[in-house]
Structure formats: structure tokens, C-alpha cells
Amino acid sequence: MQIDWSVIPSFLPQLAEGAAITIKITVIGLLGGLAIGTAGGLMRAFGGRVLNAVAFGYIELIRGTPIVVQVMFLYFAMPVLAGLRIDPMAAAILAITINAGAYIAEIVRGALLSISRGLVEAGLAIGLPHWKVLLHIVGPLAFRRLIPPLGNQFIVSLKDTSLFIVIGVGELTRTGQEIMAANFRAVEIWTAVAVIYLLLTGTMTVGLRIIEKRMRIL
Amino acid sequence: MNIIEFRKTSKHFGPLKVLDEIDLTIATGEVVVLIGPSGSGKSTLLRCINGLEQITGGDLVMDGISVRAGKRQLRLIRQEAGMVFQQFNLFPQMTALENVAFGPRQVRGLSRAEARTLALGLLEKVGLAERAHHHPAQLSGGQQQRVAIARALAVQPKVMLFDEPTSALDPELKQEVLTVMRQLAQEGMTMVVVTHEIAFARQVGTRLIFMEHGKISVDGPPREVIDTPPSDRLKDFLQHV
């Protein structure tokens, strides 16, 4: 079969739909992951023994298992175990949330602990309660250090959505495969899919760069 | 009037006894200079006063409040005991002015405008009015430490605690910090100063304390103690600083 780039526009609308689903899973999943990660990171950095152990257990469980297994568990095993039946889209979003949450928790913990003890003491010595030191001094400083590793995680999570092909979510990779099954134009389709992924991750990178510059990383 | 009272105060780090049943009373207006070899417990003694180190034995009363009275009371103590650190510890994301205005606004409930006016006045006092809008990274070490002094003063404490405030500075920069401290002492501020600046101790201090092995081994008027050291250990120490 001849390679014919002119066929790409004909399946672009379909790929765009797939990309939209990829974006939806990534954005909602990462928002959830940020919430869980922030809580987990705070628990790891400042929680008591119990909170720390809970967060540690969660992080080890998630980091120690592949995301494909996690999403299969959510989608196929949860109905059996708990009678909880969720649709593939919800399973995909949930998988990104708990998976990114675990990694982000470690990123948040690292950023919080990287702030010098002396700054915390300076805040306490003024007579501030601990939570205010966290809110006004440690938090803003840690946030700046958070952005580069967070950007990394965002990109990984976006690409991880392609693995949800295993539960039949119509995201970008799955869409590509469906088109290919119909016309066998492997080179054209996978090139187009790869370029779309690059555009998505590229947009993320540029966005994070702008935030990084605005925050004047210390 | 006594503002700080150590009552058989001890501090352990695990099995290590850093402060050994210290009895010490400091009155309002005194400028107490703490000297001693490293590991003698002088910094720990200072840090126990505002509860940055938790005491493990005895009691310590600052401005009528025990450091063991609880979190809320500890915050009240800290508002009355400003601290200046060896490493300055200015908040790097804030300008000099914001650093100084932060405390009064957060813990004394001043309005933004009031805190700003107070902060500008204090920066002026330490000779840095024209540096108000610089970030710490844009200031020299001596300037940073003077901002740190202004930051501590802004909370309007009754006592100022200095933890080796000039140890991280070049000789020339030390002087500008010592000048501010001297001025503060002349205004009648109660001060407890951990330092190796013997000349400063002799000139500005009203009382000199020499610490060894977690105990106070010499306590007296600076001139007398420095000119005629009552112990060989102190004599030896003075020759080496």
C-alpha cells in the first residue's frame, strides 16, 4: 500500500473526538490527583504517625503496581468485590486520580521538606501558629519548587491515558486503532496520533513554563 | 522586675544532657551576653526561652508565662521575645518591607497601612529605608541581618534574643549589625545575646555568662570577668576567641 498523507484530513474529526476524551480524562484526573496528592504530601510531611502510615501505605500500593492493573481492577474487579459497577470513562478518570495522586503526594512532600527549617523557625518565633507558617511561608515557597516535577507528572499522566485502551475508553489511541482496523493506514494514522500527543504535551509544557516564569522560581 | 526565670531548667537530646538544671534570672533592661565553647548549651539555652527547643526538666518562665503552659501561651511568649538568627532566615519571597510588616499584621492584628508605616519606620531605624523594596537575595548579609532585626522588633517584643547574629558575616559587615544592636541596648531593650564578640560583650553587655557542659560556670559584670577571668577555663577560652 502506498503511503498517502492526504487521507489524514478525512479521519481528523474522529481523532479530534478521541483527543477530547483524552483531555477530559487527563484534566479531571489530574485535578483529583492534585487534591489527593496535596493531602497525601501534607500527611507524609507533617502528619502524626497514623496519618503518615496511611499515606505511605497508599503511595506504596499505587507506585508498586502498574496503572493498567489498577484500571482493570477498578473496572472488572470492583463490580465483583463490592458490587460497584462504573462506566469505562469513570474508571479511567479514577485511575488517573489515584495513580497521579500517589506520585504527586511524594512530589509535594519533597517540596515541603526542602524548605529550610530556619524559615519555619523564623515564622514560629514571630508568634505565628504552625498552620499560618505553612500557609504564608512554607506553602508559597514549596509551590515554586513543585512546578517542574509536577509538569513531569502531568505529561506522564496524559500519556498514561493511552493505556485505557484495555477497558475500551474511546480516547485518542483507541480511536486511532479503530480507524486503522477499518482502513489499515498504519503509518498515516499513528503518525497523526503521535503528532496530536506531542501537541497536547507541548501545550502543557508551554503552560507550565509560563507559570514557572511568573512565579520566579527561587 | 524579672522577665526571664530559669528554674532548674534541663534540656536533653536523647541521652545527651545539653542544659543541666540551670537557675538563672534576667531582669528587665539587662543585656546578657552568653559565651562558651561550642556544645556548651548557650544556643539551646536561648532557644528554650521562646520554646523553639522544648525543655525536658524544671520550668522556664518568660514574662510571667511558663513555656510548658501550652501552645497558645507559647505563642504569647514568642510575641514578647523577638529572635534574630545566625542565618538571618528572612522570607525570600517577600521584600524587606513585607518581611518586617508581616509579623505585626499577622500576630498583632495591625491593618495593612499601619503595618507598613511601622515597618518603614523600623527599616529607617536600621538604616535600610532605601532598600525597603529589595528582596533578601538582593541584599548583603549585613543588610539582611538588619532587616531581620527590624522584623523581630516589628512585633514589639519586650525581649530580644540574638543567636550568634554576626557569625555568618564578614568582619566589615559585622560592625553594621553590632551598631544596630548597641543602639538597641542604649534604648533600654532587654537583650540576651549568644556571641563570640568579646569586645561587644565588654562594651555593651551589663552581664556576662560563661557556659560549660550545660552549666553556667561564670556569671558577672563583663569588664570584670573579661579583664580578670575568675577561672582558668574562661581565661583559656578568652585567649582563643
From TrEMBL, chain A:
One Gene Ontology term of the biological-process aspect is:
amino acid transport
Membrane topology listed for this record: Multi-pass membrane protein
Location of the protein in the cell = Cell inner membrane; Cell membrane
The record's listing under CDD domains reads:
TM_PBP2
Question: Under the cellular component aspect of Gene Ontology, which terms does the record hold?
Answer: ATP-binding cassette (ABC) transporter complex
Q: Does the keyword Transport apply?
A: yes
Question: InterPro entries per the record?
Answer: AA_ABC_transptr_permease_3TM (IPR010065), ArtM/GltK/GlnP/TcyL/YhdX-like (IPR043429), MetI-like (IPR000515), MetI-like_sf (IPR035906)
Identify the domain of life: Bacteria
For this protein, the record's Pfam families field holds: BPD_transp_1
ABC transmembrane type-1 domain location is 19-208
Show the SUPFAM superfamilies listed in the entry: MetI-like (SSF161098)
**One of the record's GO molecular function terms:** transmembrane transporter activity
Keywords in UniProt for this one? Answer: Amino-acid transport, Cell membrane, Membrane, Transmembrane, Transmembrane helix, Transport
Entry keyword 4Fe-4S: no
Listed transmembrane segments: 20-43, 55-77, 89-108, 120-143, 189-211
Q: Which NCBIfam families match?
A: HEQRo_perm_3TM (TIGR01726), PRK09494.1 (NF007028)
Protein function: Part of the binding-protein-dependent transport system for glutamine; probably responsible for the translocation of the substrate across the membrane.
Similarity annotation: Belongs to the binding-protein-dependent transport system permease family. HisMQ subfamily.
Record-given protein name: L-glutamine ABC transporter membrane protein
Organism whose genome encodes this protein = Caenispirillum bisanense
From TrEMBL, chain B:
The protein's matches in PROSITE patterns, at most eight in alphabetical order, are given as: ABC_TRANSPORTER_1 (PS00211), ABC_TRANSPORTER_2 (PS50893)
Q: Domain ABC transporter, which positions?
A: 4-238
The family database entries (Pfam families) matched by this protein are listed as: ABC_tran (PF00005)
Gene Ontology terms for molecular function: ABC-type amino acid transporter activity; ATP binding; ATP hydrolysis activity
Which UniProt key words apply to this protein?
A: ATP-binding, Nucleotide-binding, Transport
UniProt superkingdom: Bacteria
Which SMART domains does the entry mention?
AAA
Which NCBIfam families does the protein's record reference? PRK09493.1
| PANTHER family, per the entry | AMINO ACID IMPORT ATP-BINDING PROTEIN, GLUTAMINE TRANSPORT ATP-BINDING PROTEIN GLNQ
Q: Which family does it belong to?
A: Belongs to the ABC transporter superfamily.
Protein's UniProt name: Amino acid ABC transporter ATP-binding protein, PAAT family
Organism encoding this protein: Caenispirillum bisanense
